[in-house]
Amino acid sequence: RLVYFNGRFVPQLSKTTDTARNMEKKDWETNEEVQKCLRRLTDGFTDELAVPVPLEDPEGLPLSSYKNLSKPNHNMREPTSQYAVNFQMGSACFAALNTIKTGAVAYIHHPENMDKGVKTPKPVLLINAISRDGGAMELAEGVSIHPRALVIADENSRLSLVQAMVDLDGDAKYKPKLHNGYTQVFVKENATITHSYLEEVGGVAFGGTEIPKSKLPKGEPTPRKLESLRDELKDTVLETVDAHVVGDRAHYNATMVSIGGSGFIRLVLHVSLLRPYSSTDIKAFLLASGLQNSEMRQNIHHIADTATSRQLQKTLVGGRAKATWRGRIRVEQNAQLTDSDQLSRTTLMSNDCTARAIPSLEIIADNVQCKHGATVSDLSDEELFYMRSRGISEAMAKNMLIRSFANDVSSSVDPSMHDGDRPGIQTRMMERVLRHIPKKSLTVEDDFD
Known about the structure:
This protein is an alpha/beta fold. Helices cover 15% and strands 37% of the residues.
């Protein structure tokens, strides 16, 4: 267990081992692999690939340059070129800022054969706790926090990582905060990393912000007004996860859940499949409510052949919030026999919220199996009618539909985070979602009220 408070390591609350600890000066000075990893940036601004990629031509040299992939007609070119910028996730500048400003690095390194054959390894828990003032000095107008993590799984090892961002209750005076996190993951041959990322900072948004003032009791502050005065709307949460699958038959499985109440949230996930028979499985859930502006960006890069990827996004939008999902899968010319699947489902809980789903599938190889899809809808009237016709109340029916909608993702979080003696991630998700389920069915008339 590694605990960080406002970006600083707290040894009194942590339980370190040789494989999970806060990075020390000797780790950086004596380990060239660590130095090389920490210098990497996203979006092609580090041109050298994490490992060279074998080409189809057995006499050809392995390819190690990002900008030369699928050359000469479909390569990404320089990262500052307009062609490259059009496809970037916009995270490189924040990764560079984190590299300069970070005050502590969580270092998790599983050696060769560690937990090999263990079906459910004991997870490593990485906690970033944030106070109301973010640790800012009394006269400061705001504060920035730059947590960093480096995760490496050597050959034939298994690692389960739970990374959580949580609020720390207290009486400190509120200060606006910028949270800019950067997590790097490297998975070597026959290794498996299961990564659960839980974002729960920023308090809870007020429900009912979509209700017109004319339908509320006179003289009382409206939920929209209360939400606009909530301090945490001034907070910004940025997180970049950059995963490189650098070994044959290596696997990276990620589950990302964002249910926090910060004003602006952007979670970015990059996965590069650099070796044959590697795979990734990504599941993500995003809740945007009140007056939030939340965003998830995911980029899966198929560079080696015979790799597999699965991508499932669930987005729930209520109140007057805005939610954006941008998913991109790029299959390079050398990545033949790729098997990729991308699906995004968005549910609207009010007529005043905004949702954007932007799937992208860029295929340069000619022998692949790829598919993608995206849907945006409100709660199904047919499903609600079916349940109500069998004696289930409307409120209970909506509760069941929303719980089922989120369960595909919440069930994939590490079992240690599930409901048990204490409320788990499913309970915490539903407690926040239930605040924003509409009391009545959505109608066209609501738009003109």
